[in-house]
Amino acid sequence: MFLLGKGIPEHITSLPQTVLNTPFGQMLKPQLDNAMRGITQAPVAPAAIPSQHPLNGTPSRIGDGQASTNRIHIGQANGVNGLPTGQVHQVTTMKKLDTLLASAKDSCAVIFFTSATCPPCKLVYPAYDELAAEAGDKAVLIKVDLSEAYEIGSKYQVRATPTFMSFLKGEKENEWIGASEGQLLGNVRMLIQMAHPPHPHTNLRLRTLQLRHKPVTYSKIPPLEKLIAKMGPRGSDPAVTALKNFICMREASGASDAPLPSLPTITAFIKESIETTHPDSLFPFIDLLRCALVDQRVSGYLASEHSHSTVSKIFNKTNILNEQCPYSLRVVTLQLTCNLFTSPIFAIQLLQNAALCTKLLQLVTSSLLDNTHPPIRVAAASLAFNIAAFNHLQRLEEKEGFLSESAQVELIASLLETLTNENKSKDCIRGLLTAIGLLAYGAPRQGELVELCQALDAKTTVSSKKAFCEDLKQLVVEVEQVLA
Fold it and tell me: Bridge partners of 141?
């Protein structure tokens, strides 16, 4: 009876409280409360986890060689099937458990069987919460309290707590019992590694293709009076004056001292000008807006516009004109589009909004294949680099790119064709090579992009540029490695 907890003398059962009532116990109480908070309170995902595990972000180098901890994250509050990620899922019904396991059929999942009367279980609650936050959308971590979920315990034949069961690609992978934090951490991290093996490219040493790159921008301000004079009578519009004053003040005093003009008024003027101005005379309007877009506030405003109306109208004008598009209009449209990447929000929308991305790809691919104007190909290569570099941010974290696979295939096909024919501009070849390398880096090994590169013998095309310029040899070698 004593061993079952019955008949234990009161002076023994009350011993913990007796100790806490002493001065020494009162001194320890704050530390004990803090240590037990993760056990006694409902578990929540930590706001931030120290970057000490393989799945966490760590400071990385950007294109100019400076260390940076800045990351571009899509706000993924919801994972597969709208289920939250980065937190432990509390389950009491078989239906919810089946839904969670089904969501992990292409990944992995862990079930932690616990109970309200299991003190050892509570010791590993904080570690389990940490694993959930660390794993993010790479694993589904589930907690089942058997005192509230008898049906689940019966189905899975759980005989003791804590019991852990792991599942890999929809199949049971392992089961273990006990409250060993080290065993829990080791088993779950190994499971995630098995479900998401690192891409072979991560084992390469690539000086260029493993960096975070800043976008190419066109910030040079032309003589504004001459530019505005080319607008004719419309150059005297108040919207033009306001935009010119903003650009001049920003150039002279910096962004912080340059208040924004009325952007709705300016964008309305630009859209009207696109509709009413002959294509041959349209480039100064687009160029003036291009100068303002180096300011993130301006590009951010355009990102928030309904249906991205201003940018869509600019894309449409150039794309519809196609081969009849004036040289000056196409060049400045490409440069303006590069400047849109000063806003990470707009960059994400450019790549993920299907309608906008289609127009973007039409602009860049048609410009890459322009055989008569090298500056157009250079600007198009810069835009392709910006697209590939922003998509590459996800690849560095071993996630799917912002750009759909079909869009990546379309873009890299144009890049390879342009690279084959380009033999004049070193800057163009550098942009083309880097964009190809960034798109290929971390691409799914069984995906369409890799298949296309093999079918087109992309490695040979890249290798042919090794002799073009000594400065490009190292870059060519890196791109060859990711295409191998």
Answer: 110
